[in-house]
Design brief:
The structure is a homodimer of 767-residue chains. Chain A is an alpha+beta fold. In chain A, 56% of the residues lie in helices and 7% in strands. Chain A contains 30 helices and eleven strands.
């Protein structure tokens, strides 16, 4: 037991002062753990400005065999309180801040100003479990406590400025959409009967067309503005409205009109595109068949050329080859039908044909059979149906002939000789959908987050005795549920904007890269939408289950986003194949596989022991370039390992198909890793450009949370591969908790910044 | 390069034979990895029966500087093929089997029969990546390949026997329910209009009551059979039917009738219980209020005793104190209303009162206001509403007075003096719901799994060139999605049966333990239902989105299971508190906290280095006692750590409430760990009792998959805490893949064994 008055001792050993908060917290449970003792002593030893007697004192006060007396602890509290009074009330402080404040007020030397001193103290703080300044309430003076509660009222950043920042070039169209959707005609309503609901959706779609919004991506000659970015923005904004309308809009203007624009030629534009854009010609995109969804190449519908009459005969060879889930099937007058083109007994693969479905009286034409798909999980305002064709004859010019044509005599020509390349070029016209769909999905996720967060800032449940009940968002479990998803929504927002810009400016050269990117982001983002909405519904409890609070529709309508426009699981495998091809190209002109093995081995060796795998300093752990590096290394290692596995299977005599199948789970995991890397890079890049430092600061925190939360989810992998050590992964968890608590204070402002049209936030619990 | 004929060499070194399959696979990619070489050599060195020249040969053939010539590899293939011909065609073999077969056919010594030899070979096999015998197709003779495809046709176990085993004592009631629900009156239908749907549900409920099934848990005097197990079985079976019916049934007979049975006395039974059981008295369970859901103790509705008239005055003090989400609110004639009992100006806490709602003409009585909750995510066949009371007077005897009574003069008496204990005793009557709800949820999950698995055994998509397309369930990604969930459904089935039995036989002594168990299983199981159904919907692609294939209702109806009957997040914290109390009791009569710290330190030291943390042998990794031990250690470590954290916060001066809140995320994680441990233990225990060895064998595999898949999910934790090493966690992943592939072959039989009423499996994709 130490008896001498502490202050006297400390006059002789001022550099021990900054250690007091740490020692206090460490001893507070009367059991300084061996690792904690070790760390405190280590740090003291590293600080070469400490005198021998200062070191001795730290050794003494951290001696587990001799715990400090209550009197000694009391004297520490007094000193800590004095220092804490000098702390700036305008910001949130940590234990390390307090330590350094003690140094400032009591120590003559300037050694404590160095980054390494701060890092050392932060490392100890993390090891002790993160402690916020506020947690010292019990040792604070009354005056300080008052100041603290003032601090909690600090107004957040300017949400309008953040909205402006997020909307960038699209601000004008977003504002226009906000105004349009505020019109009473667009008021949201619950319509359970599918026929009535479909009528409403059609009516809304016509209003959109009347505004010129349907044709906006078409050439000016066809009533458009030739602007795919504007189209995507309209679609994104519809994600805040009724999502049946968004999909109906996408089917008509994006898929049907888009197939004419992407696969047809001028004659088709002249004849059909303008009417598609005004909705005078409602149409379908009839690609998927009951038997073939993901595997488009094996579609069974045939389009056989008859040179006698210069017609194509569209035919469904069996019941299972009927077109399936076709949007607009009940309202449509015409369909872009994907079928195997056969001429002169030769097969030329899948092409698209414009096939009339109904006459002016809206009766189906001879040979056309349409069935309603009936009720669905959601999107019941969209008229999905099945369509079969029995030898339906259409004129030769109804072939959308941009990538393949048939002359009167039935001779086939194409600017792309390879059957495979031609197929993938045509399919490339689908990429637009993959760029846009997740944007509307993200809108839905943002809406869900806004409702759940606003609810959790009003709803109280349970609390300390005789005090007000606690706000839901003040529960760490609630912060853990919602804050990482909020950060991810911001991160995805940046990534989607990046992809959209790349897509709008795509050339033949970078089109494969963009396709891979679109596939990865579509999957990653739509899975996130499903997950986010589920978490938000649960976070709102019973209130979340009532239709009036929006989750019924938000969840049900977006559920299919993970399936349509390319099943996510299939797309992630496409991503992996794309990355393997990139890797192969990297090694081109050398003996690929030999080099591969060598490189792989070097790579494996170079990372073990990995730089910094044990560094748990806060500054290091909050370093964005370090996060990006970890994400990159993961992606790189996974693609290398995947390449090696496939090679191994091939050498064992497996055919390529089987070898890929064997590695399917690794491929899907790689797809995720790729998406994560791109999202982080683009989010970080966007933040770098921000000029407003206050906004940049909060976005930086969001970026840290997204990165570290993702790393935490993969900590098993990082540990297995030796990229991180266990004390580091444990530190990551503590920092994620801390970031969640920090971002919680800005949560309301962060959701307000989404710029969701106010009148569409109709959930009673959110207003 | 080795030139001498291999067979001659091997005559002199026969013990090298078993290494050939491993060497072949290892060299097949022309790059034996350093870790693989090391392992093969290590194992060879451990086998003391190998001669020096045999060891030399293995060193030579595993020398990375001198890869085997094509001729040498060819001669290995020949020998492997010969051995493989002798393998039993009736079972699935691995690389290690092949190795041991080679030993049997070519080696004189019996050393190879030892378990350690098998373990060694399996360890190498795992390091090389699991290789099934089938993967050797390329080195097999034609005859063998034919035999292989026969093997794939091997019929699975007898599903009817498995059903019998699973249904046990409840077989009779399950059969009765199957027959009842097969009646055309119970045919499933889609009704979108909520009023019409509610009428249908009410009609069905009356039919159930007419069968005597509503009252089945009530005393015989009230038309029942006094059998809670039968009640739970009926409810479980309704999970296969329309879940609105299940909930309507539960509200009327379980909650309303149950509150009379559990909280009332004989006079209430005589007057109301029989009519509740026949549905002549439709009733509500009015506990939750808009302002207070989870925090029942703070309900605001009051029941003030007026001794003048011997009446209670039931009053809703403010709009937000209205009863919320009350099932049967539109059809009900009476409600069990939970309110703060006040008599002689004294508050005695929450009690239940029977309050008439409507007259014979079904008009609401004066002072009663009811509003429809409107459409919900699902369960639209249940009439949930809000109820407010304005000074509604009810006779004194309408107090359900089992745990607290008021005499004519207004004097309060209770057999339980402590306000807190009384409250929790009354709430204990809710436990029945927590036992039953997840059982119906599991039925929904089983139905979803059945539909998704049957679809995946019919649906083909993509495939090797010029061959039939691949069945979905032959994709490893599809197996990974569905097989662990199938195993978990079986595991939960065992756990729910265990809980139900314990609950039916509960005494005052074990009631707290059972409440903790019910809270843990309710949360764990209903979260699993939500997750399972989402995975199944996605696994069925677009077809899963059509209402006809059931996922629309299955998902929407069960979504609230994670919230009602106790919010899962809140329940998991209750579980953690229960476990902390257990721990405290364990240390009772000693200085708890001191002992705690000491014990914690010992505990921490004893596990590092942890036994077997690096053992990657297959036998070890498939050892159920080892799995149970890992689950137990995790739970134990988490509860110890939690105790320490809370203690640390308390010592820092935090109040108990804040200290718990700070540890909230750890509490929730502990709740999960507890549930997982119980589920595994009970599943393993149930399997031990199985007499039919064939069934036991497949159940064992399911148990292994459940255990290892769970361990894999927590691998980050196991690595962080030092319970496992990285080569072990990597081996776990490989075995999970392998088990998924093995169970896939029995998947159809495994879902058939659920015994789901055939006519309720109406999904077109599942028939």
């Amino acid at each position: 037991m130490v008896a001498t008055p502490t202050q006297d001792i400390l006059k002789e050993a001022p550099n021990v002062l900054p250690f007091l908060p740490l020692l206090y917290v460490g001893w507070a449970d009367k059991a300084l753990m061996p690792s904690e003792i070790k760390l405190i002593r280590e740090k003291a030893n590293e600080m070469n400005w400490l005198t021998a007697s200062e070191r001795d004192l730290i050794m003494e006060w951290s001696n587990p065999a001799q715990p400090p007396s209550p009197e000694l602890m009391g004297s520490w509290v007094k000193l800590i309180r004095e220092a804490s009074e000098k702390l700036d009330a305008g910001s949130r402080q940590s234990l390390a801040d307090l330590s350094l404040q003690m140094a400032e007020s009591g120590v003559a030397t300037t050694n404590w100003d160095s980054p390494s001193a701060r890092m050392a103290m932060e490392e100890v703080e993390l090891a002790l479990g993160y402690v916020n300044f506020k947690d010292f309430r019990n040792i604070l003076s009354d005056q300080q406590r008052e100041r603290l509660s003032e601090m909690e009222q600090i107004p957040c950043f300017d949400a309008a400025e953040m909205t402006q920042l997020l909307e960038g070039e699209q601000a004008e169209m977003k504002q226009r959409m906000r105004q349009l959707l505020a019109d009473p005609e667009f008021q949201l309503r619950i319509i359970k009967d599918k026929e009535a609901y479909r009528e409403q959706t059609l009516k809304w779609s016509k209003m959109m067309a009347a505004q010129g919004l349907g044709a906006i991506s078409y050439p000016k000659a066809n009533g458009g503005e030739d602007d795919i970015m504007l189209y995507a923005t309209v679609f994104e904004m519809l994600g805040y409205h009724d999502i049946s309308l968004a999909i109906k809009f996408g089917v008509q203007f994006g898929l049907f009109g888009g197939s004419i624009l992407g696969l047809g030629t001028q004659k088709h534009y002249d004849k059909y595109l303008t009417d598609a854009g005004t909705l005078d010609l409602p149409g379908c995109f009839a690609m998927t068949e009951t038997g073939h969804g993901s595997n488009v190449r094996q579609l069974e519908t045939t389009a056989t050329y008859d040179s006698q009459t210069e017609e194509f005969i569209i035919n469904t060879p069996n019941e299972n080859a009927g077109k399936e889930y076709i949007g607009n099937a009940l309202h449509g007058k015409m369909a872009s039908v994907f079928a195997q083109l056969i001429t002169n007994d030769e097969h030329h693969g899948v092409h698209a044909f414009l096939v009339p479905l109904r006459n002016d009286a809206h009766e189906t034409l001879p040979g056309v059979r349409v069935e309603d798909c009936g009720y669905k999980v959601g999107l019941n305002g969209v008229d999905n149906g099945r369509i079969w064709f029995t030898n339906v004859r259409i004129p030769r010019e109804n072939l959308l002939n941009r990538f393949g044509d048939v002359d009167a005599q039935g001779n086939y020509t194409s600017p792309i000789p390879s059957l495979g390349r031609r197929f993938f070029t045509m399919l490339g016209t689908l990429v637009g959908g993959r760029v846009c769909v997740p944007m509307a999905g993200l809108s839905a996720a943002k809406k869900g987050l806004t409702i759940a967060i606003k609810h959790s800032l009003k709803r109280r449940q349970f609390g300390p005795e005789n005090e007000a009940e606690t706000l839901l968002l003040d529960y760490p479990s609630h912060q853990r549920r919602l804050m990482p998803l909020l950060a991810k929504a911001y991160a995805l927002d940046a990534a989607h904007k990046y992809l959209l810009k790349r897509f709008a400016k795509r050339t033949e050269e970078d089109s494969r890269e963009i396709e891979t990117l679109a596939a990865a982001l579509k999957s990653y983002s739509t899975w996130n939408t499903t997950h986010t909405l589920q978490m938000c519904r649960e976070a709102c409890g019973g209130k979340g289950y009532l239709a009036e609070n929006q989750f019924a529709d938000l969840k049900a309508d977006t559920d299919i986003f993970t399936t349509f426009e390319g099943d996510n699981t299939v797309l992630m495998q496409l991503v992996a194949k794309g990355l393997l091809t990139d890797l192969k190209e990297e090694f081109e002109n050398t003996n690929f596989w030999e080099l591969f093995v060598t490189y792989g081995k070097q790579f494996a060796e170079s990372i073990s022991p990995f730089n910094d795998s044990g560094n748990t300093g806060e500054e290091h752990l909050l370093d964005t370039p370090y996060h990006v590096d970890l994400f990159k290394k993961r992606e790189r290692k996974m693609v290398m390992d995947l390449g090696q596995s496939i090679r191994r299977h091939r050498k064992m005599g497996m055919n390529p198909y089987d070898a890929f199948i064997r590695c399917q789970n690794d491929m899907i995991a790689l797809g995720h890793a790729h998406a994560e890397r791109v999202v982080l890079e683009q989010f970080a890049h966007a933040i770098e450009q921000v000029e407003n430092l206050e906004l940049q600061n909060i976005l930086d925190k969001m970026c840290d949370l997204f990165a570290l939360h993702t790393i935490e989810q993969h900590k098993g992998w990082y540990l297995e591969k030796g990229y991180m050590k266990t004390d580091k992964t444990e530190a990551v968890t503590r920092i994620v908790d801390k970031l969640c608590a920090e971002i919680r204070t800005e949560a309301n402002c962060l959701v307000n910044s989404f710029g969701i049209p106010e009148h569409l936030l109709v959930a009673p619990i959110a207003v």
